[in-house]
Amino acid sequence: MLLQFSQNPRLKSLLLATAGTVLAEASPYDTKWGIGLSENDPHAKRRKLWRGINLLGQVLTEVRDEMLANGDGGDDISVQ
């Protein structure tokens, strides 16, 4: 996934723009890769109330943090 986001300027910019946030896959049907709640569910904003383990959000957060730690801040990239 690191290569996918670091080599695609649009994806890179979108991911880096999330710095400082918790990433979550808001899917009410997926409790493995997502939080087990829909985006509109009031509990989706509170991590303690998530029904899922959110593996996708965790992986994307790790990719983003690794890119930032490696100095790949994307200052020269803009979302089109």
Structural overview:
The chain is an all-alpha fold. The chain has a single domain, classed as Tetracycline Repressor, domain 2 (Orthogonal Bundle), CATH 1.10.357.40. 36% of the residues lie in helices and 0% in strands. The chain is built from three helices and no strands. It has helices at 2-7, 9-16, 55-69. Residues 76-80 have low confidence and may be disordered.
Helix segment count?
Answer: 3
What is the H level of CATH, i.e. the homologous superfamily? Answer: YbiA-like
**Whole-number total of structural domains:** 1
Distance between the termini: 21 Å
Fraction of helical residues? 25-40%
- According to CATH, the fold-level topology is Tetracycline Repressor, domain 2
Class per helix and strand makeup: mainly alpha
Low-confidence stretches: 76-80
Radius of gyration, taken over Cα atoms and rounded to an integer in Å:
14 Å
Q: How do the SSEs run, as a string of H and E?
A: HHH
Strand residue content: under 5%
What would CATH call the architecture?
Orthogonal Bundle
Mean pLDDT level: 91
CATH class: Mainly Alpha
**Oligomerization category of the chains in this entry:** single chain
The global form is: elongated
Main beta-sheet strand count, sense and barrel state: none
Number of strands: 0
